[in-house]
Amino acid sequence: MRACQVVKLITDADAVLATGHLSAAEVTWLRGKAQQSGLRRMLSTRPSYTVPSISASATREFAEVTAIQLLQQPDRDAARLAAVIRTVGYDRVVLPR
Known about the structure:
Layout: H1 2-12, E1 17-18, H2 24-37, E2 42-45, H3 56-65, E3 67-70, H4 78-88, E4 93-94
Parallel strand pairs: 1-2, 2-3, 3-4
Helix pairs in contact: 1-2, 3-4
C-alpha cells in the first residue's frame, strides 16, 4: 500500500505527518499505521473543521498518542475553539498566526 510506504518514509526521516483533509475514519486508520511504524509526530490538521469533523474527545485520543492539533477555522467562534483546546490540552495545540 502506498500510504504505508509514505508513512515509513516519514518515520525514517523523523519528519511530521500531517493529516490534511482526510475523513475521521481515514485519520483513525492512518494514526494506527503511524503508531505501528514508530512515527513520533503527527499533525492533525483542523480536526473539528467540516472535514474531518472529529469531535473534541476523539481529537484528544489522537493527541494523547501522536498528534498535535492545528486549529485554523474561520467559521468557528472563539468559545468553540477554546472548548476544543481545553479538551485536547493546550500543550497539544498549534495556533497559526
